[in-house]
């Protein structure tokens, strides 16, 4: 059968010439369906697109994007970093540790990694460089911790995986808490150890007893957003509301904070936020719909079954097969954006994961952890270029070199969760 290779060649050619990813996936999928079913492709294509987008769970995606954009219009990001810098000011590498802490908390606000890099990086990098931090430590701490937004709930990639796989988004949110916090702790510990072993990279400028009054006052600009996020996630975890319903409440609450509490919302800014949210959500949904067309073609010619059978019949242990899958995803993530990778690879890999006896909830967590590394590695590491845009003083070569030790740390934590799946599953099980 030469048809699948033609379809793959068309897909790669369109991506290679810079065509939008949704166009490449949709065109390649329609071509494949036409070669397999002739004129019936004109029926299969629109049906696949509608089937992908006709999901109540997907309502959560634009609502959480809107919530994050409203909160990004407030001083929450700046307040988060200032508070974290005060609380960690007395330890070596404190500003780097503060960057990880602020990015982790901002990830729970935005759910989008590049938003965290933009919001925290624009504040953190000038502060660290002005206090003598090395460019590599400053860049690496911002770029790597910004990726935590992909895992810390409410996470847009987890919502997409849940819509594609049928796994409960609520369970995915709960499952992302432990690996997200462990990754944040690992990154912070590495920064502290690195700064302690090499003090020239992170001078310690504060001495004497801490100013507890300033520390406590720094929390005053955070409690509104913290309360909103806690309520939104709390009603999801307790089963009071679905993620879509909670997202609607969160978007309204975030608009209230931006407009009434922080008074940072003008009519022009409101229109900008609505337009930006519509563009982001529309782009993601369009990619998902076109990827479903391509995925249905792969299912029609039984590619997922063939991949599953080929790998399970190799005689390799499940762990080694999983590591091969993780490495393949890492390489693909360097070339394709996270949304496209989730919606294209999930229908192919999920049958393999089930055949190996693993939980699809666990695989969703592992998949997103893998994509966290992908967004900070070139050539399509969006976090790298986002930081360059908000901190132009940093050379792009320095930013790219700075992420290597952080990628290795993330891969080590990923391996831990591959070896011990219970680490990701015990909290969702407890919540049930």
TrEMBL record:
Gene Ontology MF annotations: transmembrane transporter activity
Residues that span the membrane, as ranges: 6-35, 97-125, 137-160, 172-193, 222-240, 246-265, 277-295, 315-332, 339-356, 362-385, 406-427
Subcellular location: Cell inner membrane
Keywords on record: Cell inner membrane, Cell membrane, Membrane, Transmembrane, Transmembrane helix, Transport
Domain TRAP C4-dicarboxylate transport system permease DctM subunit: 8-423
Listed GO CC annotations: plasma membrane
Bilayer topology: Multi-pass membrane protein
Keyword hit for Acetylation: no
Domain of life: Bacteria
Chain's role: Part of the tripartite ATP-independent periplasmic (TRAP) transport system.
PANTHER family associated with the record: C4-DICARBOXYLATE TRAP TRANSPORTER LARGE PERMEASE PROTEIN DCTM (PTHR33362:SF5), SIALIC ACID TRAP TRANSPORTER PERMEASE PROTEIN SIAT-RELATED (PTHR33362)
Homology family: Belongs to the TRAP transporter large permease family.
Assembly: The complex comprises the extracytoplasmic solute receptor protein and the two transmembrane proteins.
Protein's name in the database: TRAP transporter large permease protein
Species name: Paracoccus tibetensis
Lineage: Bacteria, Pseudomonadati, Pseudomonadota, Alphaproteobacteria, Rhodobacterales
